[in-house]
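Here is the promised in-class demo. Please do not try to memorize the tokens; focus on the logic of going from shape to residues.
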């Protein structure tokens, strides 16, 4: 991945990035687009250009398959640079704003653990639905930090107030399903530990399944998880991309059907 970052830094408009991104990332190709998007956004931020022309150009070129990951990458960049200019976020539809703040929360959990996990602080500009999106991304980071071990995951989740756990568990479901290598035995354990929040776990899994289908990168394990969770109904997957003025409200509607 580092050679992609170097290429972007040296020549952000280079056509060679095409071949780099479509290289040997296999089922995690979308993650390469996520990381690349963050670097384009960082360049825009360092140029004090908060209309994000480089990032927007990247989105226009690759958004058909990887729009979710590209928006998450913008969230990485905002957190990495601690940029609190939210005017651009105000121009985004709710679904994409959610993805950006999910990325912000994810990056916070991985790289700002003292603040976001130990002290459980949230940037002051993150309020309303943004707070729930941030929590979802933070939940994704907890799955990675726990290395997929349910006991470690639950210890981390128990640090947080119950009011945040719906979003955190949704993030866990998203991360576990996207990354894969989760067997039914682990899912049984996660179902037991999640208890009343398992519906949010299932919703997160649905987000991952929908994202993989859009990026044309389904995997055998994601299909196995979909079967275990009874998420094979294509109408459920379609709901993830439904038009809504509030993506949180849409997710709550989906959870009501799970």
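The designed amino acids, position by position:
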């Amino acid at each position: 991945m580092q050679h992609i970052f170097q290429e972007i830094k040296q020549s952000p408009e280079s056509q060679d990035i095409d071949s780099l991104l479509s290289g040997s990332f296999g089922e995690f190709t979308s993650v390469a687009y996520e990381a690349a998007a963050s670097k384009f956004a960082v360049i825009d931020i360092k140029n004090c250009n908060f209309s994000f022309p480089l990032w927007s150009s990247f989105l226009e070129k690759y958004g058909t398959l990887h729009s979710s990951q590209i928006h998450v990458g913008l969230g990485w960049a905002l957190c990495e640079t601690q940029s609190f200019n939210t005017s651009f976020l105000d121009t985004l539809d709710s679904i994409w704003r959610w993805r950006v703040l999910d990325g912000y929360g994810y990056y916070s959990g991985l790289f700002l653990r003292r603040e976001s996990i130990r002290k459980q602080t949230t940037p002051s500009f993150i309020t309303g639905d943004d707070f729930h999106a941030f929590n979802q991304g933070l939940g994704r980071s907890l799955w990675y930090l726990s290395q997929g071990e349910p006991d470690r995951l639950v210890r981390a989740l128990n640090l947080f107030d119950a009011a945040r756990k719906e979003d955190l568990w949704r993030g866990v479901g998203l991360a576990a399903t996207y990354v894969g290598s989760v067997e039914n035995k682990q899912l049984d354990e996660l179902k037991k530990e999640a208890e009343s929040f398992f519906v949010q776990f299932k919703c997160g899994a649905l987000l991952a399944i929908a994202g993989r289908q859009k990026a044309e990168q389904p995997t055998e394990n994601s299909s196995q998880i979909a079967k275990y969770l009874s998420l094979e109904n294509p109408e459920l997957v379609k709901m993830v991309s439904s038009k809504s003025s509030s993506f949180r409200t849409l997710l709550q509607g989906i959870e009501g059907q799970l």
